[in-house]
Amino acid sequence: MAKKPDLNETIAAIEKFRTERDWKQFHNPKNLAIALMCEASEVAEHFMWQNMEESRAYIKDKKKLAELQTELADVAIYLLFLCQEAGVDLVQIINEKMELNSKKYPVEKSKGSALKYNKL
Fold first, then answer.
1. What local confidence, expressed as pLDDT, does residue 95 receive?
2. 108: exposed, middle or buried (C-beta count within 10 Å: 0-12, 13-18, 19+)?
3. CA 24 to chain centre
4. What sign results for the dihedral spanned by CA atoms 7, 12, 13, 18?
5. Is the alpha carbon torsion for 98, 100, 105, 106 positive or negative?
6. Using 50, 70 and 90 to split pLDDT, how confident is the model at 43?
7. What is the pLDDT of residue 73?
8. How far is residue 101's CA from residue 98's CA, in Å, rounded to a whole number?
9. pLDDT digits over 83-120, tens only?
10. What is the pLDDT of residue 2?
11. d(CA 63, CA 85)
12. How far apart are CA 65 and CA 71, in angstroms?
């Protein structure tokens, strides 16, 4: 069984892909942010006008899920490039945000609630 690539190997592969095509010249923070938003919109488009049950059924359809996965990959790629361009460690900022969220949303106040922290 082949070893599953880790995040660093994946980043190296997408950087190689970009370098081979000389696309880094187009990857400034503004363009990457816009590309990220466009791709995120394409993710949202898969679920437009669906209720909760329909959206859950949608991802159980293998063909539809495969299409969604390609859009999710595009979002991840642009997010990684934007973090890289900004000199940001994605794993670090996720962990920092989770620490902040745990303070803003203590279990005893937020469990089972969709309210924003300032409304708890």
1. 96
2. exposed
3. 20
4. positive
5. positive
6. very high
7. 98
8. 5
9. 999 999 999 999 999 999 999 999 999 999 999 988 89
10. 83
11. 34
12. 10
Contact of 24 with 93, CB cutoff 8 Å: no
Q: Domains in the chain, start-ordered, CATH in brackets?
A: 24-88 (1.10.287.1080)
Enumerate residues 6+ apart whose C-beta is below 8 A from 115: none
Three-state DSSP at 114 gives coil
Residue of 77, 60, 55, 75 lying closest to 10 (CA atoms): 77
Q: Is 82 exposed, middle or buried (0-12, 13-18, 19+ CB in 10 A)?
A: buried
Q: Which tokens go with 117?
A: 């922290």
Q: What confidence tens digit (pLDDT) does each residue in 3-42 have?
A: 888 988 999 999 999 999 999 999 999 999 999 999 999 9
* Amino acid letter for position 75: V
Distance CA 120, CA 111 (A): 10
